[in-house]
Amino acid sequence: MRKTSLILMLTFIILLAGVININPLSIVKGTTTTTVYVNPEITFGAPGQNFAINIDISEVFDLYGWEVRLRWNSSLLNVTQVTEGSFLKTGGETFFTYKLNNTEGYIIIDCTLLGDTPGVKGNGTLLTIVFKAKAKGECVLDLYGITLISSLEKSIEHKPVGESLITITE
Question: How far apart are CA 62 and CA 148, in angstroms?
Fold first, then answer.
């Protein structure tokens, strides 16, 4: 009798542990990986010329807000314009802001949905940055410090594609 009770108790504990470990979000999210990246990865330009790059996102689920940071060689490039992309706006009204330092060569950009609304899912453009090429050379755009937040104020796992190359020729 004692052995049967012990077996039943162990079976119950094993079943309970299996139920507790089920994560409903992993079922909804599937096996895709959210990626944040600079598009295009390689850009060519000439001194004095303006060119644009996008910061895009793919395979995201429930995105409510984000922050990205980008740095570059300030002797080769200056940012002339920063605009919010259309992706997060598909979920409603947004707040978009940024801190630009052309002297040091970095920018910090933040955007969030406003109000009690679900986050957005899918693929799209978070923002567009227009640069002006100042001199001939190669410059890496380094995307770093990415934060993605869900409507439940939880961090969204993601894979950043951290660098892209700008070549300025004459």
Answer: 10
